[in-house]
Design brief:
This protein has 32 helices and 26 strands. By secondary structure, the protein is an alpha/beta fold. The chain folds into two domains: 443 residues, Aspartate Aminotransferase, domain 2; 225 residues, Type I PLP-dependent aspartate aminotransferase-like (Major domain) (Aspartate Aminotransferase, domain 2), CATH 3.40.640.10. It has a seven-stranded mixed sheet, sandwiched between helices. Strands 15-21-20-19-18-16-17 form a seven-stranded mixed sheet, sandwiched between helices. Strand 11 and strand 12 form a beta hairpin. The two termini are 47 Å apart. The structure holds pyridoxal-5'-phosphate. Pyridoxal-5'-phosphate binds next to helix 19.
Length: 935
């Protein structure tokens, strides 16, 4: 698994790791994590998966059995060209997934009838949390209002997460029948927003038009959690006054996966778009004037907002959003409607059968969900279970059933027979289960993209047409500092799409998920062994979500110690933007700590601030090795200072790839850390998600790990949930579990050594050409290399982005640009790249440096040269002689090094005009008229 360089070169002396674990502390040996061969791994995962019971589940609550079209399953979900790509920050080599995400946004805006949708959030419950805070953030500046009214028809797991999210912002969540509660003057006078579920959790469909008017009269926002499939038949939220719509797009072809990952959708009215969290794809144009896509309004990203943030969302659910978008492209508007109508009709048939036996169905309006009053819910549940079916127990005398696309006649026959042998009538006269005022009449998905690819041949070609535009790990190394784009081994990925892992509803009885529980326990134990901590929660479904969870755990702990007043969080200026954003969300005040000119933490500043604020200091957040790519030898001292001030240390584990097996966050002195399983532990980035951000904690924090309203998780004094599902994005945990098991204790350590060695190899090769900004006392970097490019701006007017775009011509995805320092590039090779690939990358960087020399020497003009004009797609290389007005040849532009003649990846557009796109914001598939008007 480690690069081929691994066997050839042992780690040389000279790495001075400040917090190197002693041999006693560093217990990561093969005895602790026994390595498995690929064959053994296969046997073991089959054994584990076999312990999950694959019953049919019609529990609902925002989770369905999805039917994944095989053309999507095989060519997107299981295709490394889609799942290994990175977040599309380099749009010229990401046009494929950007187009697919634009389709996703178009699908969501059309179905919800709102103006702008983002390219996904983490899950429905956290999306509701984001909406609540948006309601607060969009109140007039002087407003002191704080009440968020939540209808009792909203899913309980959403309400649980809302409670958690409300704490940091001082929002008061009131759960009630909204139609009545809105008339309560205490609520009405303090209202920031109202959340309804549409259809409600009991299945009923309520018209919220009047309620919306009242909410607007009160100066608040109307938020609607909804279901995309239902919206093909019922009036869209935007048509009856909702300002924000959200929900899960999972039933568009994404398996339940014991809770996830799934893409949450989120759309808003135009007036709210600049406050919307998450990433937004927009249409702009390239330097040739051709339409081109890129992430819009990037300054909204939390990396930049830091202390002013109201959201910390970074990694989201891009791969799952792409699956859902492709599902809509494949079925088209009439296909989706036919699926919805079939679900509704089968629900009507079931309703007829159950009511014929004298049972009362408590919701007389419905799309796919029936709530039934029964003498004993336990009896009905056990009868359904005898037939291999799970339904929802609402309370002692009510059950509910939610049908979906997967349902077959024998399923509803079996379901009906659980109600004293009810039978499905051979013909039914169905009343209208959707009130006529709520029937959808407006069109949706009329754009050609949703009406052109309904045959498998056409769909397959569309998927491959988009895929060919994107550079992913199948093409080259993606040396993204702080993002650890390592190999996603096929053996670890393969089980992911097995039905034994994919088909489980997150709220099935525990004895049906024994395999999952075994795997989760083993993964938690391994992560504890790796971090040196005592307990773990795998609920957070991104790194930033882990940060938030960890800080909330600290908050709960301090409260339990009578120290609840402590609310200051110290964060180095070099920290990732999600750190201060998460601290803000946890209700903490953020104060910056300086760093020294050599990149190390300014210990004197830390000491002074810890002393000054010792009575109110809650936490210190630190990334180790630092975001500047060095192991600081003061880390243990820094943690000591914080502990002496009575506060807790949060260690951001994004850089754990430099620690595993060599040191660990506990040894460094931390109390809690998050790990990015989508970085260090081989879960692919998916083009911007999914991710998993588990937190590991020291013993004193373990009681406070997050719980869940439906399934027991967390510690003895568990805080409320941070994610919709009890075990977060459970299905992809199998990837990290398998990665750890295959490497074993010693293999993990060797992988870390290789990551360090590879980074130091690059540093040494580039040193004669570029200024390596920070090294430690021994002249070493950690697992990544920060190179300073400021001098080239002064000498040749070249920015970091010019180097990045030119690297695209060499077939590489550029390293992390302008972060953590605006004039730098952060290069992280990981252990997965072999010497040949490292050399190829270094050769490219060195050749670019030569091109820069020509500009500095005046051989090429500062405004018309290889870097400023980069990238050079075929549309440029094929310009006519007259049009080619450049002081260099086409060959130099496209084939600057010999390897490119053999293997060349072509960007598909020239450099994109960000300003144009932001000024003319367009976030849905453009119509022909729009294209004509704007391009
Ligand atoms: C240092 C650091 N911390 C936190 C995060 C946030 O992780 P996520 O994107 O999974 O939310 C990142 C992401 O790149 C990071 O680099």
């Amino acid at each position: 698994m480690a690069g081929s360089i691994a066997a050839a070169r042992p780690l040389r002396a000279g790495f001075s790791l400040a917090a190197r674990a002693s041999s006693k502390e560093n217990n990561l040996t093969d005895a602790v994590i026994k390595p498995l061969t690929e064959v053994e791994l296969d046997e073991r995962i089959r054994e584990i998966a076999g312990k999950n019971k694959m019953l049919r589940s019609f529990i609902g609550m925002g989770y369905w059995n999805a039917v994944v079209p095989k053309v999507i399953l095989r060519n997107i979900t299981e295709n490394p060209a889609w799942y290994t790509s990175y977040t599309p920050y380099q749009p010229e080599i990401s046009q494929g997934r950007l187009e697919s995400l634009l389709n996703y946004q178009t699908m969501v805006t059309d179905l919800t009838a709102l103006d702008v949708a983002n390219a996904s959030l983490l899950d429905e419950a956290t999306a509701a949390g984001e909406a609540m805070i948006m309601c607060l953030a969009t109140m007039p500046a002087h407003s002191t209002k704080r009440t968020f009214l939540v209808d009792s028809g909203v899913f309980p797991q959403t309400i649980d997460v809302l409670h958690t999210r409300s704490i940091g912002f001082g929002v008061k969540v009131v759960v009630a029948d909204v139609q009545e509660a809105i008339n309560d003057p205490a609520i009405a006078g303090d209202l920031i927003g109202v959340l309804v579920q549409y259809p409600k959790q009991d299945g009923s469909i309520v018209y919220y038009s009047d309620l919306s008017n009242k909410v607007h009269e009160l100066g608040a926002h109307m938020v609607c959690a909804t279901d995309l499939l239902a919206l093909t038949l019922i009036k869209a939220p935007g048509e009856w006054g909702a300002d924000i719509a959200l929900g899960s797009s999972a039933r568009f072809g994404v398996p339940a996966g014991y809770g996830g990952p799934h893409a949450a959708f989120f759309s808003v009215k135009d007036a709210l778009k600049r406050k919307m969290p998450g990433r937004l794809v927009g249409v702009s144009k390239d330097t040739m004037g051709n339409p081109a896509l890129r992430l819009a309004l990037q300054t909204r990203e939390q990396h930049i907002k830091r202390e002013k943030a109201t959201s910390n969302i970074c990694t989201s659910q891009v791969l799952l959003a792409n699956m859902a978008a492709m599902y809509a492209v494949y079925h088209g508007p009439s296909g989706l409607k036919a699926i919805a109508q079939r679900v509704q009709q089968l629900t009507q048939a079931l309703a007829a059968a159950i009511s014929a036996k004298g049972y009362k169905i408590t919701n007389d309006t419905y799309f796919d969900t029936l709530t039934v009053e029964v003498p004993s819910a336990a009896d009905v549940l056990s009868k359904a279970l005898e037939k291999g079916i799970n339904i929802r127990r609402v309370d002692d005398t009510h059950v509910s059933i939610t049908l979906d696309e997967s349902v077959r006649l024998h399923d509803i026959t079996a379901l009906a027979s659980s109600f004293e042998g009810a039978t499905i009538p051979s013909s039914i006269t169905t009343g209208e289960s959707i009130p006529s005022a709520l029937l959808r009449t407006s069109p949706y998905l009329s754009h050609p993209t949703f009406n052109a690819y309904h045959s498998e041949t056409a769909m397959l070609r569309y998927i491959y047409y988009l895929q060919a535009k994107d550079l992913s790990l199948v093409h080259a190394m993606i040396p993204l500092g702080s993002c650890t784009m390592k190999l996603n081994p096929t053996s670890t990925m393969a089980p992911l799409t097995w039905p034994e892992l994919g088909s489980l509803h997150p709220f099935v009885p525990e004895d049906q998920a024994k395999g999952y529980h075994e795997m989760i326990k083993e993964l938690e134990d391994d992560l504890c062994a790796i971090t040196g901590f005592k307990a773990c929660s795998i609920q957070p479904n991104s790194g930033a979500s882990g940060e938030y969870a960890g800080l909330m755990v600290i908050r709960e702990y301090l409260k339990s110690q009578g120290q609840g007043h402590r609310d200051i969080c110290l964060i180095p200026v070099s920290a990732h933007g999600t750190n201060p954003a998460s601290a803000m969300m946890a209700g903490m005040k953020v104060l910056s700590v300086k760093v020294l000119a050599n990149g190390n933490l300014d210990l004197a500043d830390l000491r002074a601030k810890a002393d000054k604020y010792k009575d109110n200091l809650a936490a210190f957040m630190i990334t180790y090795p630092s975001t500047y790519g060095v192991f600081e030898d003061t880390v243990t001292e820094a943690c000591k200072i914080i502990h002496e001030a009575g506060a807790q240390v949060y260690l951001d584990g994004a850089n754990l790839n430099a620690q595993v097996g060599i040191t660990n966050p506990a040894t460094c002195g931390g109390d809690v850390c998050h790990l990015n399983l989508h970085k260090t532990f081989a879960i692919p980035h998916g083009g911007g998600g999914p991710g998993v951000g588990p937190i590991c904690v020291a013993e004193h924090l373990a009681p406070f790990l997050p719980g869940h309203s439906q399934v027991k998780t967390g510690g003895s004094q568990a805080m409320s949930a941070v994610s919709a599902a009890p075990f977060g994005s459970a299905s992809i945990l199998s990837i990290s579990w398998a990665y750890i098991k295959m490497l074993g204790g010693s293999g993990l350590k060797e992988a870390t050594s290789m990551a360090l060695l590879n980074a130091n190899y690059i540093a040494k090769r580039l040193e004669p050409f570029y200024h390596v900004k920070f090294v430690n006392g021994a002249g070493r970097v950690a697992h990544e290399v920060l190179i300073e490019l400021a001098e080239f701006d002064k000498k040749a007017g070249l920015k970091v982005s010019d180097f990045a775009k030119r690297l695209q011509d060499y077939g590489f995805h550029p390293p992390t640009c302008s972060w953590p320092i605006s004039t730098c590039m952060l290069i992280e090779p990981t252990e997965s790249e072999d010497l040949q690939e490292l050399d190829k990358f270094c050769d490219a960087m060195i050749q670019i440096r030569k091109e820069v020399n020509d500009i500095i020497a005046g051989k090429q003009p500062k405004d018309n040269n290889l870097l400023k004009n980069a990238p050079h797609p075929i549309s440029v290389i094929s310009l006519s002689e007259e049009e080619w007005n450049r002081p260099y040849s086409r060959t130099t532009a496209a084939y600057p090094l010999p390897y490119l003649k053999i293997r060349k990846f072509w960007p598909t557009v020239t450099r994109i005009d960000d300003a144009y796109g932001d000024l003319n914001l367009m976030c849905t598939c453009p119509s022909v008229e729009e294209m004509e008007a704007k391009f």
